[in-house]
Here is the input.
Amino acid sequence: MKPQQRTAVITDAESCLGKALVRTLLDEHYNVIGIFSSDEHMQSFLQELDNKTAFLPVTGESHCTDFAGQLMQQGIIRFGNIDIIIHNSGAFLSKTYEKTTPDDFMHLINSNIYSLFNLSQLAIKNMLKNHGGKIIVVTSCIALQPSQKIPAALSVLAKEGVHGLVRALALEYAKKNIRVNAVAPGYIESPLNTELNQDFINLVSPADKVGTINDIIESIRFLLKSDYINGTVMPVDGGYSAGNW
Here is the structure.
């Protein structure tokens, strides 16, 4: 399948990573469907975007079954097929366990697991008809290596569930040419958090520096190009998940 024929769904398209992914894939001649949480965020991004021809923006919550179904239908009508899901909307919460609430739990489950369940299930049904596809999930390295320094038990719970689903789906559909992988970033510098002191950097990275959005994008591009890598959770964390330091 030629790159210009591929259609990718990107959740949380309004985030720094989401915007960068939309631009990257459009520049590489993919059709892109971006999911936004509100019309305001969508319109704001459209004003920044030059290449709109191959871009379909939609607003809604991907953990809602009806919305996920409508999204798939719109994408297939517009572009003919959906080949790729990049699930970028998994929330993260750093909070001591005794202070977490049922609302915290439901927020993490909805954004990390239920939205992935809805979109991946519908996408896989379409991918089976079209003999293949790719699902890539952005998770977190803290599920690979929990830390006493960063209390985040509920996030570990949710993202470990995602990692399990990635591995299970990768095996279940390996013979159907569907590849399912995850990227697990560490702390990533963005325009929203550029002022980082050395003590904080030492806390989150043994590499004496934090990552960039481009580090994540290059990892996703690598997985998109490979038709053999399957069922992996790729750390992009400067060595954080390798162990204590």
Q: What stands out?
A: The CA atoms of residues 27 and 242 lie 34 Å apart. Residues 5-234 form a domain with the Rossmann fold fold (CATH 3.40.50.720).
